[in-house]
Amino acid sequence: MATIVVKRIDPQSLNLKEQVVSINRVTKVVKGGKNLSFSALVVVGDSSAKVVGFGVGKAKEVPSAIRKGIEAAKKNLRKIYLLETTIPHQVLGRFGSGMVLLKPAPEGTGRNRGRTGARRGAGRGNPECADQVDRLAQPPHVVKATINALEQLRDKHVVAEMRGVAVEKM
């Protein structure tokens, strides 16, 4: 299997919007009692640049965990390929126990979501599409499955080059 070289995206030049997907309270039991900390799953994206990323931050307080999650998400930005407002084709993303099916939708539909709030920010690139979770899963798995699905989208020029065909013949 070929390794994919990912070009680093500079977050300073983008108008990123952040969204907290979930916050977990974690307790570690030690000899002296319980140590309480928080874990935050954050998704960032820029719809005009078609860029999305996610990150996890852990800290003793919630605001610090969210700030660390945002910084981690900015280091994990990925370019996604979209048509004008929607995704070019249906795609299935998988990660762990999560499966997310993304389908193209007509302009003006908005982002139709199912019952899981984890996909709220996962498509922060804001494509207009319908999505559904085929298996119930934890929010981090659903977010990573959605990112996996968005990474599978290909531009028609890239597909034409892979097939060795002219773009007009596709």
- The poorly predicted ranges are 115-121
Spatial order of strands in the largest sheet: 1-2-3-4
What structural category do the secondary elements indicate? alpha+beta
Radius of gyration: 18 Å
Number of helices: 3
Please write the string of helix (H) and strand (E) elements. EEEHEEEEHH
Query: How would a crystallographer describe the biggest sheet?
Result: 4 strands, antiparallel
Give the overall shape. Answer: elongated
Average pLDDT across residues?
80
Strand content: 25-35%
Described by its quaternary structure, the protein is single chain
Helix content: 10-25%
Terminal residue distance: 26 Å
| Number of strand elements | 7
